[in-house]
Amino acid sequence: MRGLTGERWLKARIFKIAFAGRCAIPGCRNSTMGASGTGLAAFHCRKHVEHKARHGSHWHGTYSAAELKPYLAAASSYLRPRAESDRFIKAALSAIALLLEEAGPTEIATRLRGMSPRRRARIALARLRVAGIKPERFVAIVLAITALIEEDPGSHRTKEFRTVQIAKSLHRLASGTHKRWPFVDHQGRQRQTELHAFPRSSGPVLRLIGRAVEQTCEWVVEKHLSAVLALKVKRYGRHPVLRTAGLG
Fold this sequence. Notes:
Order of helices and strands: HHHHHHHHEEHHH
Radius of gyration: 22 Å
Shape: globular
Mean pLDDT: 87
Largest sheet: 2 strands, antiparallel
Low-confidence stretches: none
Structural class: mainly alpha
């Protein structure tokens, strides 16, 4: 492909990858789903297709709670004194409150199989409402995830990744069904049996949850993201990668 530039080089590269039948992720030697006859994906193997379904990216994983913590703390601190005075924040809080109110009834995790993604997304939002998660937390998570992706030089800066990461962060707050039943065993001792069931954190459901919440916060992100990021840097410093590189 020597001598090719721009769009022609890209097309040649895509053709080469597709013809080779290897996954496009660097270092992966698996065959694409199309080449192996296990699916329609022309450029990625099953492993990385499933990775994207779970995380929103073929190669980037989900941010941990520890990685998100300083951004979430900064976003929460920033929002608290402005919740009643800023019109964009007030509008987002009202929209999320309405979204939760209209989500409908909740359902235990073991009964979700066979339901449509849209209904499962509504049930997930209803579960957050029942758990008492306030709209302020939703807005803070949207700002925190967006700020983290913005500052992390190794992040995957695509809308889908951001949307899924927002949903994953919300999913952690109230994701499963937990039940306990006390009973007396044959020796008269008090025992307890437990059920812990978690819905699958993957696929279209995450996209629907993240998109619904993110849309309500678009103006908040537009107007306040830079200030939240500045507050985070002031309190907790730059991203660890930037500090290691001597840029923070």
